[in-house]
Amino acid sequence: MTGVHFEGRAPISDLAANQCPQKTLQSYSAHHTGHELTHSKMARGIKKRGATGGPVYATYIHKVLKQVHPKGITISGKGMEVVSALVEDLEGRLAAKAVEMAKFQKKSTLAAKHVQTAVKVLLPGEIAGHAISEGTKAITRFSAA
Fold it and tell me: How would DSSP label each residue in the chain?
């Protein structure tokens, strides 16, 4: 089974088959007998912290707000949640549409043109043009680095 993947990367379905073998440790505690532990911190009994559940894009929204209104305009917690949820929803829609475009063309690689087409389809008029120009600028900066 071939999955859709980002340009220059292996398909997600191939990653599981080609994974580098991780060093596993057998539990030394009678309480954990039979469980394999893959990280040394887990072997010592240190648990990972879970996500806090706050707005995912809060850092980036603050940075953009500072660029647009440099004189101390703030956003409330509820406002941040709403804007973050909006960005998450848009990201999900764009990703789904881009994958749909790649599958329609029988491609297993998600290319920039698929994302660009998804932006043109989902975003209205001038906003789509601005989004495409910003995306192109980001790809140019990334390629140059």
Answer: ----EETTS--HHHHHHTPPPPP-EE--SSTTTT-EE-SHHHHTTPPPPPP--S-TTHHHHHHHHHHH-TTT----HHHHHHHHHHHHHHHHHHHHHHHHHHHHTT-SEE-HHHHHHHHHHHS-HHHHHHHHHHHHHHHHHHHH-
Strands 109-110 and 5-6: parallel
**What are the pLDDT digits (tens) for 13-57?**
444 444 444 444 443 444 445 555 555 666 666 667 766 677 889
């998804």: which residue's tokens? 118
State the average pLDDT over residues 63-87: 92
